[in-house]
Design brief:
By secondary structure, the chain is mainly α. It has one domain: Orthogonal Bundle (ABC transporter involved in vitamin B12 uptake, BtuC). The protein is built from 14 helices and no strands. It is globular. The two termini are 25 Å apart.
Length: 335
C-alpha cells in the first residue's frame, strides 16, 4: 500500500512539473532558469504569480472533488453518484452567474465569485434537503431528488445566460470548468476550506466504510445510520462547493476518480479517502497540463495566439468515455 501512495505521489510531482512548464509565453528552459533564481521581472511574475497558484488550485480542487465523490458514493451506496447528485455543482454555477449578471461579482474578483458560488451551492444543497431530508436518508430517494434539483438549477442558469448574454461572456469558461487566471487569492481561499472538510471526511471513514456494507450491517454494528449519512452529505456538499467556487464545474472528477481510488487502495476508506484525494489532484493537474499543451499545439496549427482549451472541456470528453465503461460494468443492484 505504501508503494502505491509513493508511486502516485511521484506521478503528482511529474504532472506538476509538466504543468509549470506547459503554459505559453515561456520555454521550459526559461521556467527552469526562473526557478533557479534567474529570469527577468516579467518571467518571475508569470511563474510565481500565475503558474504556481494555478497549479496549487488545480491540485486542491481535484482532491476536493474526488473526496466528495467517494463520500457520496459510500453514503448513498450508489456507484454512479457524483457531486452533481447533491445539487451543489449547478447551484454554485447559478450563484456565480447570477451575481455576475447583477454586477455583484466579476471574473476579476475572486473573493466575490467564491462567495457567490458557495452561496449558490448551499442553496442547492438546501433544496435537496427540503425534498429528501425527511425521507429518513433513503439513498434512492436522495439520488432521484438530487437529479431533479440539478435539472431545475441548470434551467435557471440557462435563463440567466439568455437574459444577460452580453455581461457573461467571461464566465463561459468558468461554467465549463477552468483553472485559467487562478491566482494566490483563489488558493488562499481554497486550502483552509479543503483542509477542514477533508479532515472531517477522514474522521467519518469508519462510519462510511460501514455504510458501504449496507444499513443493516451498520445498524448491527451500533452506527447511527441517519446521523452518519447526514454528516457525510454535509462534508460532500462543502467540499464540492469549495472546489466549484474555485475552478468551476469540472465534469466527472467526483464521479469517476473514486472508482479508481477504491480499485487501487481498497474499500477501507481510511486508506481510499487519502488515495482519492491524491488521485483527484493528479487527474486534474494532469488534465490541466494536457489542456495547456493542446492549446499550444492548436494555437500553432490554427495560427491563433488566443486559443485556450479549458480543462473542464477535456475532463468532460474523457469522463464521458470512461463513464460508458463504468455503466457497462456496473451491476443492476444499487451498490
Amino acid at each position: 500500500m505504501t508503494r502505491r501512495f509513493t508511486a502516485l505521489a511521484a506521478l503528482a510531482v511529474v504532472c506538476a512539473a509538466v504543468e509549470v512548464v506547459a503554459g505559453r509565453g515561456m520555454s521550459p528552459v526559461d521556467v527552469w532558469d526562473v526557478l533557479n533564481g534567474g529570469g527577468d521581472a516579467t518571467e518571475r511574475h508569470i511563474v510565481f504569480q500565475l503558474r504556481l497558484p494555478r497549479l496549487l488550485v488545480a491540485l486542491g480542487a481535484g482532491a476536493c472533488l474526488a473526496v466528495a465523490g467517494l463520500v457520496l458514493q459510500s453514503a448513498l451506496r450508489n456507484p454512479l453518484a457524483g457531486p452533481e447528485v447533491t445539487g451543489v455543482t449547478p447551484g454554485a454555477v447559478l450563484g456565480a452567474v447570477t451575481a455576475t449578471a447583477l454586477g455583484l461579482a466579476g471574473w476579476e474578483s475572486p473573493l466575490a465569485v467564491v462567495l457567490a458560488a458557495c452561496a449558490g451551492g448551499c442553496a442547492g444543497a438546501a433544496m435537496l434537503w427540503l425534498l429528501a431530508g425527511r425521507r429518513h436518508g433513503d439513498p434512492a430517494q436522495t439520488a432521484v431528488h438530487g437529479v431533479l434539483v440539478s435539472a431545475v438549477l441548470g434551467g435557471f442558469t440557462a435563463m440567466v445566460l439568455l437574459v444577460e448574454p452580453g455581461e457573461l461572456g467571461s464566465v463561459v469558461q468558468w461554467l465549463v470548468g477552468t483553472t485559467e487566471g487562478r491566482v494566490w487569492e483563489h488558493w488562499h481561499l481554497l486550502w483552509p476550506w479543503a483542509l477542514l472538510w477533508s479532515a472531517a471526511a477522514w474522521l467519518l471513514a469508519g462510519p462510511l466504510t460501514l455504510l458501504r456494507c449496507g444499513d443493516d450491517i451498520a445498524l448491527a454494528a451500533g452506527l447511527s445510520v441517519r446521523r452518519a449519512r447526514s454528516l457525510a452529505l454535509l462534508c460532500a456538499v462543502a467540499l464540492t462547493a469549495g472546489a466549484v467556487a474555485a475552478v468551476g464545474a469540472l465534469g466527472f472528477i467526483g464521479l469517476l476518480v473514486p472508482h479508481l481510488a477504491v480499485a487501487v487502495f481498497g474499500a477501507d476508506l481510511r486508506r481510499s479517502l487519502p488515495g482519492a484525494a491524491l488521485t483527484g489532484a493528479v487527474v486534474v493537474c494532469g488534465a490541466d497540463a494536457a489542456a495547456q499543451l493542446s492549446s499550444r499545439l492548436l494555437a500553432t496549427a490554427l495560427d491563433s495566439g488566443r486559443l485556450t482549451l479549458p480543462v473542464g472541456a477535456l475532463t468532460a470528453c474523457l469522463g464521458a468515455a470512461l463513464l460508458l465503461l463504468v455503466v457497462r460494468r456496473t451491476p443492476s443492484r444499487t451498490f
